[in-house]
Amino acid sequence: xxxxxxxxxxxxxxxxxxxxxxxxxxxxxxxxxxxxxxxxxxxxxxxxxxxxxxxxxxxxxxxxxxxxxxxxxxxxxxxxxxxxxxxxxxxxxxxxxxxxxxxxxxxxxxxxxxxxxxxxxxxxxxxxxxxxxxxxxxxxxxxxxxxxxxxxxxxxxxxxxxxxxxxxxxxxxxxxxxxxxxxxxxxxxxxxxxxxxxxxxxxxxxxxxxxxxxxxxxxxxxxxxxxxxxxxxxxxxxxxxxxxxxxxxxxxxxxxxxxxxxxxxxxxxxxxxxxxxx
Amino acid sequence: xxxxxxxxxxxxxxxxxxxxxxxxxxxxxxxxxxxxxxxxxxxxxxxxxxxxxxxxxxxxxxxxxxxxxxxxxxxxxxxxxxxxxxxxxxxxxxxxxxxxxxxxxxxxxxxxxxxxxxxxxxxxxxxxxxxxxxxxxxxxxxxxxxxxxxxxxxxxxxxxxxxx
Lengths: 278, 164
Known about the structure:
The complex is a heterodimer. Chain A is of the alpha+beta class. Chain A has helices at about 1-10, 10-30, 45-60, 65-95, 100-105, 270-275; strands at about 110-120, 130, 145, 150-160, 165, 175-180, 185-190, 195-200, 215, 230-235, 245-250, 260-265.
């Protein structure tokens, strides 16, 4: 026993070093592939609080760009509204349901919670966004996050005031996507580093695709409604003997300048869940 | 007491700088300097090693919260805190006399720059490697490590010059 104590005292520094490293590695492995609580993340209330204060100061420096962006968004929405009104009048006159109504029905049941990005990493393989909305605002994990109609990511962890989002530029997330022209469904996969591009996986060689095709959300999961922008194909390869295309998408979302996002609350998802569970 | 205060202020300033400013800059996608490691490297050598490791662990855990990388920064800072005194003892005779802070005045120019360079590169390599948690992009990893370490090293070097 005395020898043991002697050994511990003689090697106290090495043992402390090993102990702390073991704790660190337990944390690393415990938080793979996603965080399981907001405790050691940027949605932690202390860190998020400091970040929010810093962000409030920084927000003054890009008021002008934000105003421009809001203006163009407003103009877009007004145009869309005008368009829809015209359609509505037309169909009320002809009283026939158009083929495109399924898209509008798909949008029903989604509630939008506006939120602000208070922290965002882009240089890691496992990037995260912190939003200034939490449980108190109705945010729950699993909700989709979009910005100006294009996909950003999925809410992963929530506490009372903040939420942590796993963006599409995280190496462990796949988001279901559909090629607009051919209705072919695949999923996105991020390779790391390049925050402007993701890969589109599982598109078989029999499909006709070309650069410039748009890719939208598929609507087969409850997270995102159908038809939100994901990206545009900017490089398409098909190697001899490959069964699947090697497709690179240019993301519509600009993660460098992401400040305001919308969280999508699918109000029908409890009914969907109960359906799947039966 | 004055010395403790000076070191504490350095830690706080650098953590805020890292979290609020440097992490939000996008330097061509390859430069990601972790300057928060500098005050840890500037601690006096006479500090007990267990204290240095505990300071390192707390610093790392704080950075993990800020970067959402549970454990990654902690593993790197604890390793730096453990190996730094061993390296300095190889380079400087009677290293225990460095009791205020580690800088080029207290330990000599080339000894200081060697310690700074080796420890920064070691730390950055650990952080990038553990964060990626794979060797898939090894060359990219080495490139980012070298370029980011260089920036951190330059900042540490310039800060040291202004203190002379």
